[in-house]
Write a structure and sequence with these properties.
Number of helices: 12
Strand order of the largest sheet: 1-3-2-4
Distance between the termini: 34 Å
Shape: globular
Strand content: 15-25%
Largest sheet: 4 strands, mixed
Order of helices and strands: HEEHEHEHHEEHEHEHEHHEHH
Radius of gyration: 20 Å
């Protein structure tokens, strides 16, 4: 497991800067919406309420931003004023990896990384992000509530990271500067992906060349030629304005994207019972609500991209699916033996 001694240093540095961010607006994130700190709407929280700073990827113009405001407002209310939140956009508090490390070290942050970004705290966590394993949004919650999901979350707890919700973030597709009409066209494409082993495997499944950057750097990577393409749900592609650079959306549908909503296990255990119950109860509700919320706007945001001059191309996904299924277990020898097969049989009954 990854050593955590840097977490304390990182936390101190971040916390020393955050007072200015909260009062004057957090620094802008290149290529995304300006980073902002916004309090939730509950003004009844007492002065000694535990304050959590929430590191969002989305910006204020993204439709999901309002969902996050509502979610954390509901936790505040259910906690009877014992916790409160400030929302920061565009990963302006730090990258997901940085925030996760700080959380594991006891920082009072809320992070929303994908499960593939939690492998330093539980290698099996990346099972959630195997390309084409999860094919329906409802399967995210189903896997989370299974023995597989509970075992992963327990291991994360043991390493300082507490998951109190999971979300359906949208189905990810590739948006590219060059046209891509068949699997072979990906061979010369530099695809921006996240900074984990599973993201590199995802690019490999698509036959593309992985370029690793934080999402906050994606617009710059595209404009400077570091990457030819990136991938994300249409909502984030639109709110991040990458359509200004990339005009070709390829329906790879390689990941029914899910993220964990995390906090420090140490901090969670220190909270009063009413606050702990608020996190877990509202977190369970939100995990199921995001399936309908996100699904409802998918076509709308595809159309918004079309209106900005983006061409949408359907592609034969068979080579991608077959590559993932045939190669994933060999690519991840660090997993618990039989993990992929167990997850597949749980979701599909051994079909």
């Amino acid at each position: 497991m990854k050593k955590r001694f840097l977490a304390g240093i990182l936390t101190l540095v971040m916390l020393s800067c955050l007072a200015g961010c909260a009062s004057g607006g957090a620094p802008a994130a290149t290529g995304t919406n300006e980073g902002t700190a916004a309090a939730t709407n509950d003004t009844s929280a007492p002065a000694d309420a535990k304050l959590f700073k929430v590191n969002l990827t989305v910006g204020t113009t993204d439709p999901q931003y309002a969902w996050w405001q509502d979610f954390f407002g509901r936790i505040e209310k259910a906690s009877e004023g014992t916790v409160k939140f400030e929302l920061y956009t565009g990963q302006s508090l730090g990258t997901n990896d940085e925030i996760t490390e700080a959380i594991a070290g006891g920082a009072e942050f809320i992070g929303i990384p994908d499960y593939a970004g939690l492998v330093n705290y539980c290698p099996d966590a990346s099972i959630y992000h195997v390309p084409y394993l999860i094919q329906e949004p409802s399967q995210i919650y189903k896997l989370w509530q299974s023995d597989i999901g509970k075992t992963i979350d327990s291991a994360l707890d043991n390493n300082g990271v507490h998951v109190f919700s999971v979300i359906y973030f949208g189905t990810r597709n590739v948006i590219s500067k060059p046209k891509v009409q068949s699997a072979s066209d990906f061979s010369n494409v530099k695809l921006r992906v996240g900074t984990s082993k599973m993201w590199n495997f995802t690019a490999e499944c698509l036959g593309a060349n992985a370029t690793n950057t934080a999402w906050s750097e994606v617009y710059q990577a595209l404009t400077q030629g570091v990457a030819d393409a990136c991938e994300s749900p249409s909502t984030l592609l639109y709110s991040s304005k990458v359509y200004e650079v990339c005009k070709n959306l390829i329906k790879t549908e390689h990941l029914v994207c899910n993220s964990a909503v995390i906090m420090s296990k140490q901090v969670f255990d220190s909270l009063p019972e009413v606050a702990q119950n608020a996190f877990m109860t509202v977190g369970q509700e939100f995990a199921q609500e995001t399936v309908d919320l996100t699904s409802a706007i998918a076509q709308e945001y595809d159309q918004k991209l079309i209106d900005e001059g983006v061409t949408i191309t359907e592609i034969d996904k068979t080579p991608f699916i077959e590559y993932s299924k045939a190669n994933v277990e060999a690519a991840f020898p660090e997993w618990t033996d039989g993990l992929y097969q167990k997850a597949y049989e749980f979701l599909y009954g051994g079909k």
